[in-house]
Write a structure and sequence with these properties.
CATH superfamily: TonB-dependent receptor, beta-barrel domain
CATH class: Mainly Beta
Helix content: under 10%
Number of domains: 1
Oligomer: single chain
Number of helices: 6
Structural class: mainly beta
CATH topology: Maltoporin, Chain A
Radius of gyration: 24 Å
Number of strands: 36
Shape: globular
CATH architecture: Beta Barrel
Strand content: over 45%
Largest sheet: 22 strands, antiparallel, barrel
Length: 608
């Protein structure tokens, strides 16, 4: 651990030295970003948590074709994919499970009561994303349930600018991707519409997919009291060979549909801001153990979440007070899990004090929760930050966080797995300290964190040779680690070049408790290093190179290189994206080997 700390500090000192001799370049977009996923509006440079923002420019220079590929480039975030196209991927932050990370779209919670496997079913196409806010660490007092190790908020585009954009891509494995995005401004409303299709024959047996995505964002009554509508629908049909089993006689198959409808408005005065919202989220999942024999084994689940919430902030001489309430009702219909329903209420209160000529900020807060099947819980937290200089900030935070069991944890049953209706909620106390440095040319951050968890839920069997995996609350688990991110911008031939990289180290003691008996706890990231070099040497051509190194707690290591080149000619844009260009052999989760080297050719036409 001390070697890693010395490595990070040495790297920071070298980059600071290089920074001192760099040319001036235009200020980054981060300077003007306000984190939108919190009740208290805080500029990005002034927040007291570990927050990573992926801007629309970062997305263009990422060599990623979907959000699962994009998030893999963030240190401390672990996206475990099963194949290409983003059909099935699980989301992890700082060693937590896929049920312990909350996904939001414009602040709307997209958690699924059936299972966290469906989290990424709600992920949006890159064409409609303005930025992504990644909040690491305990976030229960801000977001409530499921933000156990962090949260990711996808912020969608607002500015449509009367544009039309059409995209067509084709490449290895019979991949064919097509999409259209329309934007329009009317007298008293604005609209963004997106429709896309992503298909492939697959890179191995039974790995084909046929995915559709639709997105609508409208703002009505713009001249008086704007009302925002978001509607999404995503359908994914894919072969799931060995996604969950190793039996060679099975031919697994899965279909999912995910949809969202939400209405939001904002009332503002000089001191008070109130943002009410009503939403409906739905997920449907059908799984066949044998694709051509539905009667052999079939799971079918439909979950609905209907919610209403209001978040507010009030500014006074004593500081800014944030408060909110979130109420929702969940309905589940399943041939395996039964007919279930749950009522949830969350109440949030926090207050930001500013002292020492506004250099010191202290923000205590608490979340009070009620679940009809798990009763009352309270989760306090505290954020502290100190602005050492205009560009350098020290911060720390601590808080309690939690997750109630999913219906899969509680009630699922098959010949190899059993749920447990007597499970207790997971709880943890987490702490973090860090430093951030930002200028237009160079930015860097380092964070050290610790998490002491109790009642974590894992699937354990009595012994290696017999018994089925049963959902169980395991004993105390300690997780600690560090993260480092840096980005350096410099000028060559009048064009901005960017070198960005991140490193994450994580250590926990979960393997000491049940190394041979656990189903999900064996594949945590131990070391993770990501680097991206985005260059432009000519006016209309930009190249991007992405490198990812991973060492997991099981000892598995792999290196993956991706690259892209984008050429723009007036309203036309041509791109080539190469993934796994050195043909690394590796598995991110389960039993599914990731695809070999592959290429995607694309063309985009845009006009106003």
């Amino acid at each position: 651990m001390h070697l890693h700390i010395r490595f990070i500090l040495t790297l920071i000192s070298i980059l600071f030295t290089v920074h001192c001799f760099a040319q001036d370049i235009p200020s980054q977009n981060l300077d003007s970003i306000t984190i939108s996923s919190t009740r208290i509006d805080i500029p990005f440079k002034e927040n007291s948590r570990t927050i990573t923002v992926i801007t629309s420019a970062d997305i263009k220079n990422s060599a990623a074709v979907n959000i699962a590929d994009l998030l893999q480039q963030v240190a401390g975030v672990d996206i475990r994919r099963r194949g290409t196209g983003g059909s099935q991927a699980d989301l992890y932050i700082r060693g937590g499970g896929f049920d312990q990370t909350l996904l939001l779209i414009d602040g709307i919670k997209m958690d699924d009561a059936q299972t966290g496997h469906h989290t990424m079913n709600a992920a949006l196409p890159l064409d409609v994303i303005e930025r992504i806010e990644i909040i690491k660490g305990p976030a229960a007092r801000i977001f409530g349930q499921n933000a156990f190790t962090g949260a990711i908020n996808i912020v969608t585009k607002n500015n449509s600018n009367d544009t039309v954009s059409a995209n067509l891509e084709t490449g290895s494995f019979g991949q064919l991707n097509a999409s259209v995005t329309l934007g329009g401004e009317l007298q008293n409303s604005s609209h963004i519409v997106h429709a896309g299709k992503v298909t492939s024959e697959g890179y191995r047996n039974n790995s084909d997919y046929d995915n559709s995505n639709y997105f609508l964002k409208s703002i009505f009554n713009k001249n008086k009291q704007p009302i925002e509508l978001i509607a999404t629908y995503f359908e994914r049909n894919f072969g799931a060979e060995n996604f969950y089993t190793t039996n060679p006689t099975f031919n697994e198959y899965e279909e999912t549909q995910n949809s969202l409808v939400a209405f939001t408005t904002t009332f503002k005065s000089a001191k008070l801001k109130i943002q009410p919202r009503i939403y409906w989220k739905r997920n449907q999942d059908m799984f066949l153990l044998r694709r051509d024999d539905p009667g052999f084994f079939r799971n079918f689940h439909i979950s609905d979440k209907i919610g209403v919430e209001a978040n507010a902030s009030y500014t006074s001489k004593a500081g800014v007070t944030g408060f909110g309430v979130d109420m929702s009702k969940i309905y589940l219909r399943s041939n395996n899990l039964g007919m279930r329903n749950r009522f949830m209420t969350n109440i949030f209160v926090e207050h930001q004090f500013k002292l020492a000529n506004n250099k010191l900020d202290i923000t205590p807060g608490i979340a009070l929760t009620y679940f009809s099947d798990f009763k009352f819980h309270a989760f306090p937290g505290l954020d502290v930050g100190f602005q050492i200089s205009n560009n350098l900030r020290a911060y720390g935070n601590m808080g309690y966080t939690y997750r109630i069991p999913t219906y899969t944890d509680l009630f699922y049953s098959d010949p190899a797995t059993a749920g447990n209706p007597d499970l207790e909620p997971e709880e943890a106390f987490a702490q973090e300290v860090g430093l951030k440095y930002f200028t237009s040319k160079f930015s860097a951050s380092v964070a050290f964190f610790n998490r002491d968890a109790t009642n974590l839920i894992d699937y354990i069997r009595p012994n290696v040779s017999q018994g089925i995996f049963t959902a169980t609350n395991i004993t105390e688990v300690n997780t600690k680690g560090l993260e480092f991110d840096a980005s350096y911008n410099f000028i060559i031939r009048g064009f901005t070049q960017t070198l960005a990289f991140g490193y994450a180290f994580l250590d926990d003691n979960i393997l000491d408790q049940n190394e041979d008996l656990s189903r999900y706890a064996l594949n945590t990231l131990k070391h993770q290093f990501n680097a991206r070099f985005s260059t432009q040497l000519f006016k209309n051509v930009r190249q991007n190179m992405v490198y990812k190194y991973v060492e997991r707690t099981t000892g598995q290591t792999y290196n993956v290189w991706d690259a892209s080149i984008v050429m723009r000619l007036k309203q036309m844009e041509f791109n080539i994206t190469a993934s796994n260009i050195f043909n690394a052999e590796y598995i991110e989760t389960g039993f599914v080997p990731m695809p070999p080297s592959n290429v995607l050719f694309g063309m985009r036409y845009s006009f106003n």
